[in-house]
Amino acid sequence: MLCRELNHSKCKTYLVACENARTAVLIDPVREKEGLYLGALAYFGLRLEMIVDTHTHADHRSGAHDLADITGAQLVMHRKAPSPHVDRHVEGGERLRCGNVELEILHTPGHTPDSISVHVADRVFTGDALLIHGTGRADFAGGDPGEEYDGIVGKLFKLPDSTIVLPAHDYRGHTQSTIGEEKRSNPRVAGRTRAEYINLMNNLNLALPQGIQEALQPNESDLESDVVNFPTYAQLNAVHQLAPVEVRARLERASPPILVDVRENEEYRGELGHIAGARLIPLGELAERGPRELSDAKDHEVVVICRSGMRSTTGGAMLTAMGFERVWNLKGGMLEWNDAGLPVDR
Ligand code: FE
Q1: 344 alpha carbon to ligand 1 midpoint, in Å?
Q2: Torsion of CA 251, 257, 262, 268, to 10 degrees
Q3: pTM reported for the whole predicted model
Q4: Could you read off the pLDDT of 5-56 as tens digits, one per residue?
Q5: How far is the CA of 34 from the centre of ligand 1 (A)?
Q6: How many helices and strands (H and E) does the chain possess?
Q7: What is the pLDDT of residues 334-344, one digit of tens each?
Q8: Cα 55 to ligand 1 centroid, rounded to whole Å
Q9: Domain boundaries, the chain
Q10: How far is the CA of 335 from the centre of ligand 1 (A)?
Q11: What is the largest CA-CA distance in the chain?
């Protein structure tokens, strides 16, 4: 097995390859460095089979979509990933294969709901869940310090002590560590109970990364920011969230809300289906089509829908800015709607 970190910067991208089959996996490619990755693949004589994004990144644009496009490699992310263009959704416990290399997926949410770690032979790629002598912040939308603790202590710390830890970020010049070393000396987790960890993480008071919305919303939607004028953080936070059962209850009223589904056409008719009567306007077309096609909805209740509730929050903020006054977001999107066992059309 060949394993290389390619960026040599704070943000890590790993190339993992089977030298027999000459096939490769890229973990967490960064957008500005696609040329470097293609060069490395050519240099080593490898065909890119899979791209894994360990989570929806908030601090940089992912290179995954472009690279999947160029190479035909499969983009792999957790089922809860909001992006419309994931080729293969995985859950914890699944095993993927690249030549003779086996990748075991561990669901380690908390930094984001879609965070995974990838266990390969004697090493584990921990994304932003477990960092070297640190852990990923859990204060973004969908973050959860308790879940983060459970993933780190309950899953990653169950791997053999000698397992090499390879995180998606390192801000302090560390290059590698082991599970044993982190168990003993990780300053956030070692010796702390779950409650102590939650308390610590809820009181870090970190500033938001610069340009978070410029990275996060395009990564969630796979749209360019010049196509959609993405709402600000404050506008996103102002969108009201409604759980699936609450949306369902409102649909049974005499004057039910108008449903606007902002996913892509394939998703609307895909595995998760859609709610009966939902009008399909993909997020990238909402600015143009919204005012025209939803003119009857201006002072009506509107519920915006997507896969995981992230793109639709963007959609909800856009509609609010267009003057729609009673906009709600389906919290958790069609994933939670399906998980709640509510009816779908296909
Ligand atoms: Fe991250």
Answers
A1: 32
A2: 30
A3: 0.94
A4: 999 999 999 999 999 999 999 999 999 999 999 999 999 999 999 999 999 9
A5: 19
A6: 12, 19
A7: 999 999 999 99
A8: 7
A9: 2-201, 223-339
A10: 22
A11: 65
